Amino acid sequence: MSTYQSDLLRLLEERGYIHQITDAEGLDALAARQIVPGYIGFDPTAPSLHIGSLVQIMMLRRLQQAGHKPIVVMGGGTGKIGDPSGRDESRRLMNDKIIAENVAGIRQVFERLLTFGDGPTDAIMVDNDEWLSKLGYIELLRNVGPHFTVNRMLTFDSVKLRLDREQPLTFLEFNYMILQAYDYRELALRYDCRLQMGGSDQWGNIVNGMELARRMDGSELFGLTTPLLTTADGAKMGKTAAGAVWLNEAQLPNYDFWQYWRNVDDRDVGRFLRLFTDLPLDEITELEALDGAEINRAKTVLANEVTALVRGRDAAVSAEKTAAETFAGGGAGGDLPSLEVGPDGMRIGAVLTELGFTASGKEAKRKLAEGAVKVDGQTVSDAGYLLEVGEGAELKLSLGKKKHAIIRR
């Protein structure tokens, strides 16, 4: 049974979000007596976030559900540098136009999951370029530089990873942790932000920001991290053989997004229902206790609930209908991914790779040889098979039992 007094920490603990807290007792007391503005930062490195970021977005949702104020920080400033955490190489530098376009794309998912406005617990979205672009280099060196030691910065995992593997870490990236720390201090001054949350790999950066604000302003701030989120088989959330599982429909069709959740490992169902849905905990307990083929019912609930939150209820209903038509009825649901081929047709291996069903031509050949590929229900094993479609006609292409697409001309 939880010993926390605040609704916030009780909710986060019950749902499985808590890995580390800098001062659990202090944060618990603060959240029990007042509204706590809390933030998470997101660098706009693409026009959409992927599901590896969804646990952080849900943390902000939980913060608001518990009566506190979420602050979404877009890294328009830090995005010009790139977070070296967990990376072996430098990020591609982006110009202002690309960053602005990415921010616009990313905002969509937050507008579904958070309530924005001017109220005391309404979410706000800010861009750290507002203050970082105005920060003079000499000012940064004089006011912030003395509070950091290179000795300590070299102990950070993001730095050690690169150096241990003898990968270059640019001076540009080395400054990232200083700017992120400065963000927390600036948010505390501007918005009375008292809490920064993030993944477990951000612990050092969060503590840095707390220490900087304490030394410069005497502020008492807090940090909370989530466990490293992996699937039951040890894979990192957000990536599949076919690529990233994007949150925005423009980057990944609703049906493919729904299918990702429908096909999760049985062992992940209960944990994912707690983290990524608003279902009551007693209902989740019943669903995760289902055995054998019955667990598929829980997976469908998971797929529907996550898709409804991220893409909207209509998207979830449509995706489930398409799955039912495709699998149960043997038909071809209207929500399936599709590919158009020209009058000369297209080799089947190239079609599989183009759809993202296989990661390479080599994998496509292997799947064909295994007899895993069907065209309109007929097995095709020849890698040289030319997939031709009549004018205005369509074919159903299947890889195994779970991947299906419509091929048109």
UniProtKB/TrEMBL annotation:
Residues bound to ATP: K239
PROSITE patterns in alphabetical order: S4
Segments forming domain RNA-binding S4: 346-406
InterPro entries recorded: aa-tRNA-synth_Ic, Rossmann-like_a/b/a_fold, S4_RNA-bd, S4_RNA-bd_sf, Tyr-tRNA-ligase, Tyr-tRNA-ligase_bac-type, Tyr-tRNA-ligase_bac_1
Keywords, in A-Z order: Aminoacyl-tRNA synthetase, ATP-binding, Cytoplasm, Ligase, Nucleotide-binding, Protein biosynthesis, RNA-binding
Main location: cytoplasm
Leader sequence segment: none
Short name of one Pfam family: tRNA-synt_1b
Residue span of motif 'KMSKS' region: 236-240
Enzyme Commission number(s) from the entry: 6.1.1.1
GO biological process, one term: tyrosyl-tRNA aminoacylation
GO cellular component term, pick one: cytosol
Transmembrane spans: none
Record field: catalytic activity: tRNA(Tyr) + L-tyrosine + ATP = L-tyrosyl-tRNA(Tyr) + AMP + diphosphate + H(+)
Localization: Cytoplasm
Motif ('HIGH' region): 44-53
SUPFAM superfamilies assigned: Alpha-L RNA-binding motif (SSF55174), Nucleotidylyl transferase (SSF52374)
Alphabetized GO MF terms: ATP binding; RNA binding; tyrosine-tRNA ligase activity
Binding site for L-tyrosine: Y39, Y176, Q180
Assembly and binders: Homodimer.
Classification via PANTHER family: TYROSINE--TRNA LIGASE, MITOCHONDRIAL, TYROSYL-TRNA SYNTHETASE
UniProt family annotation: Belongs to the class-I aminoacyl-tRNA synthetase family. TyrS type 1 subfamily.
Role this protein plays: Catalyzes the attachment of tyrosine to tRNA(Tyr) in a two-step reaction: tyrosine is first activated by ATP to form Tyr-AMP and then transferred to the acceptor end of tRNA(Tyr).
Name of this protein: Tyrosine--tRNA ligase
Protein species of origin: Qipengyuania vulgaris
